[in-house]
Amino acid sequence: MSRPRVVVVGGGVVGVSCAYALAKAGAQVQLLERNEIGSGASGGNAGTVAVGHPPLNRRGRLRQILASLLDQEGPLYIPPRWDPSLWRWLRDFVRYCTDEHVEECMKVMAPLGKNALQSFDDIIEEEAIECGYIRSGYYKVCVTEPGLVSARNEAAAIEAYGYHPECISTEELRQREPEFSSELLGGIHYPESRSLDPLKFLEALTERARQRGARISEGVRVLSMSIISGRVVGLRTNEGEVGADAVVLATGPFSAGILNEVGIQLPLQPGKGYHRDYAIGPGGAPSIKIACELSEASVFCTPMGDFVRFAGTMEFSGFNRVMRTPRLNQLTNAARRCFPGLGSDGPKSEWCGLRPMASDGMPIIGSIRDIKGLSVATGHGMLGLTLGPVTGEMIAREILDADEPQLKKLSPSRFCESTLVNTKNP
Q1: What is the pLDDT of residues 303-360, one digit of tens each?
Q2: pLDDT tens digits for 223-254?
Q3: How far is it, in rounded angstroms, from Cα 140 to Cα 186?
Q4: DSSP string, 209-240
Q5: Whole-angstrom Cα distance, residue 279 to residue 345?
Q6: In angstroms, rounded to a whole number, what is the distance separating the alpha carbons of residues 53 and 33?
Q7: Left (φ > 0), alpha (ψ -120 to 50) or beta: where does 143 sit?
Q8: What is the CATH topology of the domain spanning 5-42+200-265+364-414?
Q9: Does the predicted TM-score (pTM) go above 0.85?
Protein backbone atom coordinates (compact mmCIF):
# COMPACT_ATOMS: atom_id res chain seq x y z
CA MET A 1 0.00 0.00 0.00
CA SER A 2 2.02 2.98 -1.24
CA ARG A 3 -0.86 5.32 -0.38
CA PRO A 4 -3.23 3.43 1.90
CA ARG A 5 -6.80 4.61 2.34
CA VAL A 6 -7.20 5.51 6.01
CA VAL A 7 -10.52 6.56 7.50
CA VAL A 8 -10.36 8.46 10.79
CA VAL A 9 -13.59 8.53 12.80
CA GLY A 10 -13.95 11.51 15.13
CA GLY A 11 -13.46 15.24 14.64
CA GLY A 12 -11.96 16.20 17.98
CA VAL A 13 -8.34 17.20 18.51
CA VAL A 14 -7.16 13.57 18.59
CA GLY A 15 -8.98 12.60 15.39
CA VAL A 16 -7.93 15.72 13.50
CA SER A 17 -4.35 15.25 14.69
CA CYS A 18 -4.40 11.70 13.34
CA ALA A 19 -5.81 12.88 10.00
CA TYR A 20 -3.21 15.64 9.78
CA ALA A 21 -0.26 13.35 10.59
CA LEU A 22 -1.45 10.63 8.20
CA ALA A 23 -2.04 13.08 5.35
CA LYS A 24 1.33 14.71 5.97
CA ALA A 25 2.95 11.26 5.74
CA GLY A 26 1.29 10.60 2.37
CA ALA A 27 -1.78 8.49 3.16
CA GLN A 28 -5.18 9.00 1.50
CA VAL A 29 -7.20 10.24 4.45
CA GLN A 30 -10.88 10.79 5.05
CA LEU A 31 -12.12 12.03 8.41
CA LEU A 32 -15.72 11.38 9.44
CA GLU A 33 -17.37 13.51 12.13
CA ARG A 34 -20.98 12.87 13.08
CA ASN A 35 -21.62 16.48 14.09
CA GLU A 36 -19.23 19.38 13.53
CA ILE A 37 -15.48 19.60 14.05
CA GLY A 38 -14.84 20.47 17.69
CA SER A 39 -18.43 19.90 18.82
CA GLY A 40 -17.30 17.56 21.60
CA ALA A 41 -14.84 18.08 24.45
CA SER A 42 -12.11 19.43 22.18
CA GLY A 43 -13.83 22.71 21.45
CA GLY A 44 -14.45 23.79 25.03
CA ASN A 45 -11.64 22.42 27.16
CA ALA A 46 -9.31 24.40 29.40
CA GLY A 47 -6.82 25.07 26.62
CA THR A 48 -3.76 23.98 28.59
CA VAL A 49 -0.99 21.70 27.38
CA ALA A 50 -0.01 20.34 30.79
CA VAL A 51 2.56 17.55 30.83
CA GLY A 52 4.43 15.34 33.26
CA HIS A 53 1.75 15.02 35.93
CA PRO A 54 0.72 11.76 37.66
CA PRO A 55 -2.51 10.03 36.58
CA LEU A 56 -5.81 10.45 38.41
CA ASN A 57 -5.33 6.99 39.93
CA ARG A 58 -3.61 7.87 43.18
CA ARG A 59 -3.70 6.58 46.70
CA GLY A 60 -6.64 8.01 48.65
CA ARG A 61 -9.00 8.36 45.68
CA LEU A 62 -11.51 5.91 47.20
CA ARG A 63 -12.26 8.37 50.02
CA GLN A 64 -12.71 11.14 47.49
CA ILE A 65 -15.06 8.99 45.39
CA LEU A 66 -17.22 8.17 48.40
CA ALA A 67 -17.40 11.84 49.40
CA SER A 68 -18.30 12.85 45.83
CA LEU A 69 -21.61 11.00 46.04
CA LEU A 70 -23.02 13.81 48.19
CA ASP A 71 -21.20 16.95 47.05
CA GLN A 72 -22.43 18.55 43.81
CA GLU A 73 -19.94 21.39 44.15
CA GLY A 74 -16.79 19.34 44.66
CA PRO A 75 -14.11 18.77 42.03
CA LEU A 76 -15.43 15.23 41.52
CA TYR A 77 -19.14 14.41 41.42
CA ILE A 78 -20.86 11.05 40.92
CA PRO A 79 -24.66 11.28 41.09
CA PRO A 80 -25.96 8.15 42.87
CA ARG A 81 -27.68 5.93 40.30
CA TRP A 82 -27.86 2.33 39.17
CA ASP A 83 -25.22 1.92 36.46
CA PRO A 84 -23.39 -1.43 36.56
CA SER A 85 -20.86 -0.39 33.91
CA LEU A 86 -19.86 2.67 35.94
CA TRP A 87 -19.49 0.69 39.16
CA ARG A 88 -17.33 -1.89 37.37
CA TRP A 89 -15.22 0.94 36.00
CA LEU A 90 -14.88 2.52 39.45
CA ARG A 91 -13.89 -0.84 40.93
CA ASP A 92 -11.11 -1.14 38.34
CA PHE A 93 -10.13 2.52 38.77
CA VAL A 94 -9.67 2.05 42.52
CA ARG A 95 -7.68 -1.12 41.92
CA TYR A 96 -5.14 0.99 40.00
CA CYS A 97 -4.83 3.58 42.80
CA THR A 98 -1.45 2.42 44.05
CA ASP A 99 1.98 4.00 44.27
CA GLU A 100 3.33 1.21 42.07
CA HIS A 101 0.86 1.98 39.30
CA VAL A 102 1.57 5.71 39.46
CA GLU A 103 5.27 4.98 39.07
CA GLU A 104 4.65 2.74 36.06
CA CYS A 105 2.46 5.42 34.48
CA MET A 106 5.06 8.11 35.02
CA LYS A 107 7.73 6.03 33.30
CA VAL A 108 5.59 6.21 30.17
CA MET A 109 3.82 9.55 30.47
CA ALA A 110 6.78 11.72 31.55
CA PRO A 111 8.83 11.19 28.36
CA LEU A 112 5.66 11.22 26.27
CA GLY A 113 4.86 14.64 27.71
CA LYS A 114 8.17 16.04 26.48
CA ASN A 115 7.44 14.66 23.02
CA ALA A 116 3.98 16.25 23.22
CA LEU A 117 5.46 19.69 23.89
CA GLN A 118 7.82 19.34 20.96
CA SER A 119 4.98 18.21 18.69
CA PHE A 120 2.91 21.26 19.63
CA ASP A 121 5.78 23.69 19.16
CA ASP A 122 6.62 22.16 15.78
CA ILE A 123 3.04 22.29 14.47
CA ILE A 124 2.44 25.85 15.66
CA GLU A 125 5.65 27.04 13.98
CA GLU A 126 5.53 24.92 10.81
CA GLU A 127 1.86 25.58 10.08
CA ALA A 128 1.86 29.21 11.33
CA ILE A 129 -1.24 28.57 13.45
CA GLU A 130 -2.71 31.59 15.22
CA CYS A 131 -4.46 30.43 18.39
CA GLY A 132 -3.13 32.61 21.21
CA TYR A 133 -0.27 30.19 21.88
CA ILE A 134 1.49 31.05 25.18
CA ARG A 135 4.73 29.24 26.05
CA SER A 136 5.16 30.66 29.57
CA GLY A 137 3.82 27.65 31.46
CA TYR A 138 1.14 27.91 34.15
CA TYR A 139 0.78 28.38 37.90
CA LYS A 140 -0.75 25.90 40.31
CA VAL A 141 -1.94 27.97 43.27
CA CYS A 142 -3.19 26.89 46.70
CA VAL A 143 -5.44 28.38 49.36
CA THR A 144 -4.99 25.74 52.09
CA GLU A 145 -1.98 24.24 53.85
CA PRO A 146 -2.90 20.64 52.91
CA GLY A 147 -3.32 21.77 49.30
CA LEU A 148 0.08 23.44 49.30
CA VAL A 149 1.78 20.39 50.84
CA SER A 150 0.17 18.14 48.24
CA ALA A 151 1.19 20.47 45.40
CA ARG A 152 4.79 20.59 46.59
CA ASN A 153 4.94 16.81 46.92
CA GLU A 154 3.64 16.42 43.38
CA ALA A 155 6.17 18.96 42.10
CA ALA A 156 8.99 17.03 43.75
CA ALA A 157 7.79 13.82 42.15
CA ILE A 158 7.61 15.44 38.71
CA GLU A 159 11.08 16.93 39.12
CA ALA A 160 12.46 13.41 39.43
CA TYR A 161 11.36 12.78 35.81
CA GLY A 162 13.27 15.68 34.32
CA TYR A 163 10.75 18.51 34.66
CA HIS A 164 11.50 21.83 36.36
CA PRO A 165 8.64 22.97 38.61
CA GLU A 166 9.38 26.04 40.73
CA CYS A 167 7.91 26.57 44.21
CA ILE A 168 6.71 30.16 44.65
CA SER A 169 5.67 32.13 47.71
CA THR A 170 2.51 34.22 47.94
CA GLU A 171 4.51 37.43 47.60
CA GLU A 172 6.30 36.22 44.49
CA LEU A 173 3.04 34.99 42.96
CA ARG A 174 1.44 38.42 43.41
CA GLN A 175 4.49 40.17 42.00
CA ARG A 176 4.20 38.06 38.87
CA GLU A 177 0.41 38.24 38.71
CA PRO A 178 -1.07 41.18 40.69
CA GLU A 179 -4.62 39.89 40.16
CA PHE A 180 -3.98 36.94 42.50
CA SER A 181 -5.68 37.03 45.89
CA SER A 182 -3.64 37.80 48.99
CA GLU A 183 -5.28 34.72 50.55
CA LEU A 184 -3.15 32.40 48.44
CA LEU A 185 -0.59 30.49 50.49
CA GLY A 186 1.78 29.81 47.62
CA GLY A 187 2.02 27.73 44.49
CA ILE A 188 4.07 26.07 41.79
CA HIS A 189 5.15 27.38 38.40
CA TYR A 190 5.28 24.70 35.71
CA PRO A 191 7.39 26.17 32.89
CA GLU A 192 7.02 23.08 30.69
CA SER A 193 3.47 23.86 29.68
CA ARG A 194 1.58 25.81 27.04
CA SER A 195 -1.86 27.39 26.70
CA LEU A 196 -4.03 28.31 23.73
CA ASP A 197 -7.57 28.73 22.43
CA PRO A 198 -8.42 25.06 21.71
CA LEU A 199 -11.17 25.72 19.15
CA LYS A 200 -8.98 28.09 17.13
CA PHE A 201 -6.19 25.53 17.18
CA LEU A 202 -8.52 22.72 16.12
CA GLU A 203 -10.08 24.71 13.29
CA ALA A 204 -6.66 25.73 11.99
CA LEU A 205 -5.29 22.17 12.21
CA THR A 206 -8.35 20.90 10.34
CA GLU A 207 -7.65 23.37 7.54
CA ARG A 208 -3.98 22.34 7.41
CA ALA A 209 -5.06 18.68 7.15
CA ARG A 210 -7.33 19.64 4.21
CA GLN A 211 -4.47 21.46 2.54
CA ARG A 212 -2.40 18.27 2.78
CA GLY A 213 -5.14 16.30 1.03
CA ALA A 214 -7.35 14.99 3.84
CA ARG A 215 -11.09 14.91 3.13
CA ILE A 216 -13.10 16.22 6.09
CA SER A 217 -16.74 15.04 6.17
CA GLU A 218 -19.07 16.46 8.81
CA GLY A 219 -22.54 15.15 9.62
CA VAL A 220 -21.53 11.56 8.84
CA ARG A 221 -22.45 8.91 11.40
CA VAL A 222 -20.77 5.53 11.46
CA LEU A 223 -23.35 2.76 11.76
CA SER A 224 -21.08 -0.28 11.75
CA MET A 225 -17.71 -1.64 10.68
CA SER A 226 -17.25 -4.13 7.86
CA ILE A 227 -14.81 -6.87 8.83
CA ILE A 228 -13.84 -9.76 6.54
CA SER A 229 -11.47 -12.56 7.58
CA GLY A 230 -10.31 -10.61 10.60
CA ARG A 231 -9.56 -7.38 8.68
CA VAL A 232 -11.52 -4.14 8.62
CA VAL A 233 -12.40 -3.25 5.02
CA GLY A 234 -14.64 -0.27 5.54
CA LEU A 235 -17.48 1.40 7.36
CA ARG A 236 -21.22 1.66 6.85
CA THR A 237 -22.44 5.21 7.43
CA ASN A 238 -25.66 7.18 7.11
CA GLU A 239 -24.32 8.30 3.73
CA GLY A 240 -23.37 4.84 2.45
CA GLU A 241 -20.37 2.53 2.43
CA VAL A 242 -16.85 3.88 2.89
CA GLY A 243 -13.99 1.58 1.91
CA ALA A 244 -10.72 1.60 3.83
CA ASP A 245 -7.40 -0.15 4.18
CA ALA A 246 -7.21 1.06 7.78
CA VAL A 247 -9.61 2.67 10.26
CA VAL A 248 -8.75 4.83 13.27
CA LEU A 249 -11.40 5.23 15.96
CA ALA A 250 -10.87 8.56 17.72
CA THR A 251 -14.40 8.96 19.03
CA GLY A 252 -13.66 9.74 22.67
CA PRO A 253 -15.91 7.95 25.18
CA PHE A 254 -18.14 6.74 22.32
CA SER A 255 -15.32 4.46 21.14
CA ALA A 256 -16.34 1.81 23.67
CA GLY A 257 -19.84 1.47 22.21
CA ILE A 258 -18.56 1.16 18.64
CA LEU A 259 -16.03 -1.48 19.65
CA ASN A 260 -18.55 -3.44 21.69
CA GLU A 261 -20.39 -4.21 18.45
CA VAL A 262 -17.36 -6.09 17.14
CA GLY A 263 -16.59 -7.96 20.33
CA ILE A 264 -14.06 -5.54 21.84
CA GLN A 265 -14.44 -4.20 25.37
CA LEU A 266 -12.52 -1.19 26.65
CA PRO A 267 -12.94 0.21 30.19
CA LEU A 268 -14.05 3.73 29.25
CA GLN A 269 -16.45 6.08 30.96
CA PRO A 270 -17.57 9.57 29.92
CA GLY A 271 -16.19 12.14 32.35
CA LYS A 272 -18.05 15.42 32.03
CA GLY A 273 -16.18 18.70 32.26
CA TYR A 274 -17.54 22.25 32.30
CA HIS A 275 -16.44 25.75 31.44
CA ARG A 276 -17.58 29.30 31.96
CA ASP A 277 -16.05 32.08 29.85
CA TYR A 278 -15.95 35.64 31.18
CA ALA A 279 -15.13 38.66 29.03
CA ILE A 280 -12.13 40.65 30.23
CA GLY A 281 -12.99 44.12 31.47
CA PRO A 282 -14.91 46.05 34.13
CA GLY A 283 -17.56 43.77 35.58
CA GLY A 284 -15.91 40.74 34.00
CA ALA A 285 -12.68 38.78 34.29
CA PRO A 286 -9.33 40.30 35.22
CA SER A 287 -6.66 40.43 32.54
CA ILE A 288 -4.24 37.70 33.57
CA LYS A 289 -0.93 36.97 31.87
CA ILE A 290 -0.76 33.17 31.85
CA ALA A 291 -2.93 30.22 32.83
CA CYS A 292 -3.25 28.94 36.37
CA GLU A 293 -4.85 26.00 38.14
CA LEU A 294 -6.73 26.47 41.39
CA SER A 295 -5.33 23.40 43.09
CA GLU A 296 -7.97 22.45 45.65
CA ALA A 297 -10.85 22.97 43.20
CA SER A 298 -9.05 21.54 40.14
CA VAL A 299 -10.20 24.54 38.08
CA PHE A 300 -8.07 25.99 35.28
CA CYS A 301 -8.16 29.70 34.45
CA THR A 302 -6.87 30.34 30.94
CA PRO A 303 -6.60 33.69 29.14
CA MET A 304 -7.88 33.39 25.56
CA GLY A 305 -7.65 36.76 23.90
CA ASP A 306 -10.47 38.98 25.14
CA PHE A 307 -11.86 36.49 27.66
CA VAL A 308 -10.77 34.11 30.41
CA ARG A 309 -11.96 30.52 30.50
CA PHE A 310 -12.61 28.87 33.86
CA ALA A 311 -12.76 25.13 33.22
CA GLY A 312 -12.58 21.84 35.02
CA THR A 313 -14.48 19.49 37.30
CA MET A 314 -15.12 15.79 36.74
CA GLU A 315 -18.63 14.36 36.72
CA PHE A 316 -19.60 10.75 36.06
CA SER A 317 -23.28 10.94 35.13
CA GLY A 318 -23.36 8.95 31.89
CA PHE A 319 -23.75 9.97 28.26
CA ASN A 320 -25.55 13.27 28.54
CA ARG A 321 -24.88 16.97 28.04
CA VAL A 322 -27.00 18.18 30.94
CA MET A 323 -25.41 21.23 32.54
CA ARG A 324 -25.85 21.24 36.31
CA THR A 325 -25.90 24.73 37.80
CA PRO A 326 -24.01 23.72 40.99
CA ARG A 327 -21.18 22.38 38.84
CA LEU A 328 -20.97 25.64 36.89
CA ASN A 329 -21.15 27.65 40.10
CA GLN A 330 -18.22 25.68 41.44
CA LEU A 331 -16.08 27.17 38.66
CA THR A 332 -17.11 30.72 39.48
CA ASN A 333 -16.74 30.27 43.24
CA ALA A 334 -13.23 28.91 42.85
CA ALA A 335 -12.31 31.70 40.45
CA ARG A 336 -13.51 34.39 42.86
CA ARG A 337 -11.45 32.91 45.68
CA CYS A 338 -8.35 33.15 43.51
CA PHE A 339 -9.20 36.38 41.65
CA PRO A 340 -11.20 38.75 43.89
CA GLY A 341 -11.32 41.18 40.96
CA LEU A 342 -13.74 38.94 39.05
CA GLY A 343 -16.78 41.13 38.44
CA SER A 344 -20.46 40.45 38.81
CA ASP A 345 -21.30 40.33 35.11
CA GLY A 346 -22.55 36.96 33.90
CA PRO A 347 -20.49 34.60 31.74
CA LYS A 348 -20.35 35.07 27.98
CA SER A 349 -20.70 31.31 27.49
CA GLU A 350 -21.30 28.09 29.42
CA TRP A 351 -20.44 24.62 28.17
CA CYS A 352 -20.00 20.98 29.09
CA GLY A 353 -18.36 18.10 27.25
CA LEU A 354 -17.56 14.41 27.70
CA ARG A 355 -13.99 13.18 28.03
CA PRO A 356 -12.93 9.53 27.57
CA MET A 357 -11.69 8.24 30.92
CA ALA A 358 -9.76 4.95 30.95
CA SER A 359 -9.84 3.01 34.21
CA ASP A 360 -6.04 2.92 34.56
CA GLY A 361 -5.60 6.64 33.87
CA MET A 362 -3.61 6.30 30.65
CA PRO A 363 -4.59 6.82 27.00
CA ILE A 364 -5.39 3.88 24.75
CA ILE A 365 -3.42 4.19 21.53
CA GLY A 366 -2.64 1.58 18.91
CA SER A 367 -3.91 -1.28 16.82
CA ILE A 368 -6.43 -3.91 17.82
CA ARG A 369 -4.51 -7.15 17.76
CA ASP A 370 -7.19 -9.47 16.37
CA ILE A 371 -8.74 -7.09 13.82
CA LYS A 372 -6.15 -6.06 11.27
CA GLY A 373 -6.30 -2.51 10.06
CA LEU A 374 -8.23 -1.25 13.08
CA SER A 375 -6.61 1.23 15.49
CA VAL A 376 -7.93 3.26 18.39
CA ALA A 377 -6.89 6.60 19.85
CA THR A 378 -8.98 7.28 22.93
CA GLY A 379 -8.90 7.27 26.73
CA HIS A 380 -6.93 10.52 26.95
CA GLY A 381 -9.07 11.81 29.80
CA MET A 382 -8.18 15.43 30.49
CA LEU A 383 -5.09 15.19 28.25
CA GLY A 384 -6.83 15.09 24.88
CA LEU A 385 -5.50 18.49 23.84
CA THR A 386 -2.10 17.90 25.41
CA LEU A 387 -1.52 14.56 23.68
CA GLY A 388 -3.49 15.17 20.47
CA PRO A 389 -0.63 15.99 18.06
CA VAL A 390 1.78 13.40 19.46
CA THR A 391 -0.98 10.77 19.34
CA GLY A 392 -1.50 11.57 15.66
CA GLU A 393 2.19 11.05 15.01
CA MET A 394 2.18 7.72 16.87
CA ILE A 395 -0.86 6.45 14.96
CA ALA A 396 0.59 7.53 11.60
CA ARG A 397 3.88 5.76 12.26
CA GLU A 398 2.19 2.57 13.39
CA ILE A 399 -0.14 2.40 10.37
CA LEU A 400 2.39 3.41 7.71
CA ASP A 401 5.56 1.78 9.06
CA ALA A 402 5.34 -1.97 9.56
CA ASP A 403 8.56 -1.91 11.59
CA GLU A 404 7.34 0.70 14.06
CA PRO A 405 7.17 -0.88 17.54
CA GLN A 406 3.93 -0.41 19.44
CA LEU A 407 4.11 1.32 22.79
CA LYS A 408 2.82 -1.63 24.79
CA LYS A 409 1.91 0.31 27.91
CA LEU A 410 -0.60 2.35 25.87
CA SER A 411 -1.82 -0.45 23.62
CA PRO A 412 -5.49 -1.50 23.76
CA SER A 413 -4.25 -5.07 24.10
CA ARG A 414 -3.59 -4.36 27.78
CA PHE A 415 -7.36 -4.53 28.25
CA CYS A 416 -8.95 -6.56 25.52
CA GLU A 417 -8.92 -9.40 23.09
CA SER A 418 -11.33 -9.59 20.19
CA THR A 419 -14.06 -12.22 20.15
CA LEU A 420 -14.77 -11.52 16.48
CA VAL A 421 -12.36 -12.69 13.80
CA ASN A 422 -14.21 -13.83 10.68
CA THR A 423 -17.35 -11.84 10.20
CA LYS A 424 -18.87 -9.18 8.00
CA ASN A 425 -21.20 -6.71 9.63
CA PRO A 426 -24.48 -6.08 7.79
Answers
A1: 999 999 999 999 999 999 999 999 999 999 999 999 999 999 999 999 999 999 999 9
A2: 999 999 999 999 999 999 999 999 999 999 99
A3: 9
A4: HHHTT-EEEES--EEEEEEETTEEEEEEETTE
A5: 9
A6: 31
A7: alpha
A8: FAD/NAD(P)-binding domain (3.50.50)
A9: yes
